Description:
- The chain is mainly α.
- The protein is built from 10 helices and 5 strands; from the N terminus they run E-H-H-H-H-H-H-H-E-E-H-H-H-E-E.
- Helix 5 (77-98) crosses helix 6 (100-125), helix 6 (100-125) packs across helix 9 and helix 7 (141-154) runs antiparallel to helix 8.
- The radius of gyration is 27 Å and the shape is elongated.
Amino acid sequence: MAFRSNGPVMLALPPFRGVTRRIILTALIAYFGLAIIGLLSPEMDIRLHNLAGLVPDIALHGAVWQFLSYPFVTEGLLNLLFALLSVWFFASALEEERGGRWLMEYFLLTTIGGGLLASLIAVALGPGNRWVPFAQTMGLWPFVLAAVVAFAYANPEQEVRFQFILSVKAKYLAVIYVLVYLALALVGGDRFGSAVAVLAALCGFVFLHFAPRRGVRVAVSEWWFGIRNAYYRAKRRRAAKKFTVYMRKQGKDVSLDKDGRYIDPNGTPRDLSDKKWMN
């Protein structure tokens, strides 16, 4: 059954493609690659986990790659499978609705933004705080929470049905997820990791509320090409004005439109499909 419908959303397996597929495959490759390394050299496995997992004090003092690598490192196959299934369900729906570029932008913003904000708070509060600067977190759950929030933001009344057992509206599901992670951030065992997830969801909500629907990258591209085209149109109008003055000195009159394009005196319409008229 399709993931989206007019009725409740069935958590059947959606299409496996695009950015969602790349995120899932990257996480699987990282997991099994580290597992093989762990069999050959347990010490190297521990070292790589320490390098790739997010540790606030280390990440803010040079190991900036941790803000991007920590989602793809995890401990425990069951934890990984549940995270990947959640990414598959919710991220694929977002990608179908908003596109792959938007999803990649959202993934980078939420995972990096949540990790960075939590790390800054942990280091600023010092060693005695609940989110200690040398705590470590890893895994895709911050992005999962952000994806659930994005899905609920776009489809608040859409019902999500879990294998015919439980049906809940997306907006309530997002609230439940956020409250659980918020409680874990305050009193749970992995406080720093839960804080990263909550702040990732916060970054996602701000992005959804203020960023253009198709994403910042598309908006910036359109803004840039708009400025470029305006510049070329102004340049063409200046050249057309000089050309008109020159032709008048030669005793000839030419007609140009407001954008500096030549108007046929015989009234023959231009072929706008001709690339020479495009700008």
